[in-house]
Amino acid sequence: MNVHRFICKRLLMMIPIVIGVSFLIFVIIDMIPGDPGSNLLGAGARQEDIDMLNEELGYNLPLMQRYGKYMYDAIFRLDLGKSYATKKPVLTEIGNRLPVSLRVAFNAILFSLVFGVPLGVLSAVKQNTVFDRVPTGLALLLAAQPAFLIGLVLMLIFSLWLGWFPANGIASWKSYVMPMIALGLPYGGRQLRFTRSSMLETIRQDYVRTARAKGATERMVIWKHAMKNALLPVITVAGNSFGILIGGAIATETLFGLPGLGSFIVSGIKQKDVPVVTGGIIVFAVVFSFVILAVDLSYAFVDPRIRAKYSGRGR
Are 80 and 275 a contacting pair, CB within 8 Å? Predict the structure, then answer.
């Protein structure tokens, strides 16, 4: 399979994904009790004012008519609408918030890999020793902890007691340190477990025993022969985790006061702000699709068999 054909095929698959996700979000939001006018004007507003605002926002139109108009503007004009609450273009708001979520997610995944992969390899190589039991127990403990709980502990120690990092907001690179650790530690525990399981399965393969029989050093056997094949499931987990963290780190963004995409979507759900929620979910779906595409392509750099298949030499 040619790599360009594969990429084009995956890009074309994003079209039904975006349409399906956007329609599902439209239906779900429409089923939520209430309307934007009541949420924006408050409980004491007059019904005629609420009806007038809903009419102005176009919310009184039938669901399919609203959805068709929205998708027409989104596809042909690249316009995701304006927020009901702020009257600002949703695409502009997302453009300001998405980089924050991307930085937090990238830092967290990078931290989890630096933390989890080496310990996972060590745990597999030193199976049933103290170097295995301690990292495995640590991984189980960290994977069971919610990120916001770790964030509260970090905030208490490093912000309130020591004053090393700011507790909320984005002032400098220091503002990303505690969210990175709070999100990275639980995922690092998962990476440790996946790396250990993958390495244990790989080092028992025949080609690893053959490399040892030919006199290769243990370091070369582990890092040159076994590690490449063991990395495939690790890459999959890291890619899926990164995609989830982009829009799913809502509690952490709220805890540290980060203006990210997750908190933006949540605020839109509370106000039944259809353009905000739909636009945010569409962008999240597109970014997630690109992340999964990048994960699939990265397999080719790890496994020569997959690289040959992409280049067409595997026929």
Answer: yes
